TrEMBL record:
The lineage of its organism: Bacteria, Pseudomonadati, Bacteroidota, Cytophagia, Cytophagales. Residues 16-118 form the Pirin N-terminal domain. Keywords: Iron, Metal-binding. GO terms for molecular function: metal ion binding. This is Pirin family protein. It comes from Hymenobacter metallilatus.
Amino acid sequence: MLKLIPSTDRHHAAPVAWLNSYFLFSFADYYDPQNVHFGPLRVFNDDTVQGNAGFPQHPHSEMEIVTLVLDGELTHEDTMGNKRTITKGEVQRMTAGTGLAHSELNQTEQPVHLYQLWFLPNQKNLAPSYEQKDVDFLDTKNELVPLVSGQKVLEDVVYMNSNSTVYWCNLREGKTVSFKTFPIRNTFLYVKEGKLYVNGVDIGPNDQIRSTDEHVLEIQASADAQFILIDLPGSEANY
């Protein structure tokens, strides 16, 4: 079953002048009991942070936090002693585990566009940890490129403590990619730009599909497209 959620159903939040966010799941002041998580995917925020602004230090625990920078750069500093700048095409994973605090600041004059995803971890009380990798995913063509995964059969990706995998795809008009899945798995797809035709469903910019009980997704680009696809366990026992 494919559930299409149009872009207009995202929750828009602009709590301060420097932040423009779209929440795909319940977050902060937005709460919908029917939209709290999809498998272990607990948060998906589409954020734009203006120049010389950002999130001051704040705490996290018991969550796998993945940040993908789509444009611009973001400076991260945490209580583990990490201070890194995440630039366009880079991926960051932070295991909050038993607890840490971090800040995320745009120290440039230009806006930074990022996706931040939170996953429920597959075990609690993990030691906090950090990983960052330049995957250069924005320049790939016509293939699903794994960025972050807890499935150890995949190599050269950022590791996270979740039985899930985050893919990116830049798909040219007329091209098709297939994603084989299982009825015990869920698939989440979110379009950054362009148009797709997915198992008979048309989707456009900032639309999302939540798929359950499918064997394969046939994804064709009706126009040049960029999208994120997340493979997720369907049962909490497999998180």
